[in-house]
Design a protein that fits this description.
It is a single chain. The chain is an all-alpha fold. The protein has one domain. Helix content is about 70%, strand content about 0%. It is built from 3 helices and no strands. The longest helix has 29 residues.
Length: about 80
């Protein structure tokens, strides 16, 4: 996986926590942030799936049969 450098701003409390964890765990801060973001994205994926299921149940969304999708894609 290719690594990309990025810059963002967070509160001093977060930086203090990150520095403390990095030192105690002897891990790079970037590694801790990457793992934390992956865990957050997993959580968000679950919330989105729940929302989409609820939208289906409420009739706000509709399912498209696989056959229609395949036909449109020429598969």
């Amino acid at each position: 996986m290719h690594k990309i450098r990025s810059t963002f701003t967070v509160s001093d409390f977060i930086i203090d926590e990150l520095n403390s964890l990095s030192k105690e765990l002897n891990e790079k801060k970037s590694h801790i942030v990457e793992k934390a973001l992956n865990m957050y994205f997993d959580s968000v994926d679950e919330k989105l799936a729940d929302k989409r299921l609820k939208d289906l149940e409420l009739g706000k969304e509709k399912l498209i049969p696989a056959e229609e999708v395949f036909k449109e894609l020429g598969i």
